[in-house]
Amino acid sequence: MFKRIDHVEIVTDQPDRTIEFYTGVLGFRITMRDRIEQSGLGVPIDLTYLDLGGTVVELISYDGASVEPAPQKEHLGYRMMALEVEDMQKAVQYLKTKGIDVVWGPRVRETYARAEIRDPNGYHIELRQWFR
Questions:
Q1: What would the pLDDT profile of 29-65 be if each residue is shown by its tens digit?
Q2: CATH architecture entry for 81-130
Q3: CA torsion, points 113, 116, 119, 124, in degrees to nearest 10?
């Protein structure tokens, strides 16, 4: 019946900066753009679909959007998404060249390495390298 997670939605008040981060830094590609003129918000909304290896992020933006600050502590609700990386050290070095700080980690365990970065909206993104 249920097949997979189709996409993750992120509302942003900085669409250009956020698209550049996901495409220019993380390597997502834009697969589709849409504009919904008659939205339930009373203003048009712009949608940008980004794909990375079958993982889709839908960026949503509209006039008057205000993004709540990303939580800084554990909380109920959505926490973050995670991206698998081939080599944690290379990924961290690459991100530094793009001006992206690692805000947690990397921590290395027997079966994985894990670190976290933030997108332009302050939302955490986990980086995970599996040792198989």
A1: 999 999 999 877 788 999 999 999 999 999 999 888 7
A2: Roll (3.10)
A3: 120
* pTM: predicted TM-score of the whole model, two decimal places: 0.87
We find that the CATH architecture of domain 8-62 is Roll (3.10)
* Adjacency order of strands within the sheet including 8-11: 8-11, 55-62, 45-52, 29-36
CA-CA-CA-CA dihedral for 68, 69, 75, 81, to nearest 10: 90
Q: Residues of CATH 3.10.180.10 domain(s) within the chain?
A: 8-62, 81-130
- The conformation of residue 74, written as its DSSP 8-state character, comes to -
90 exposure class (CB count in 10 Å sphere: 0-12, 13-18, 19+): exposed
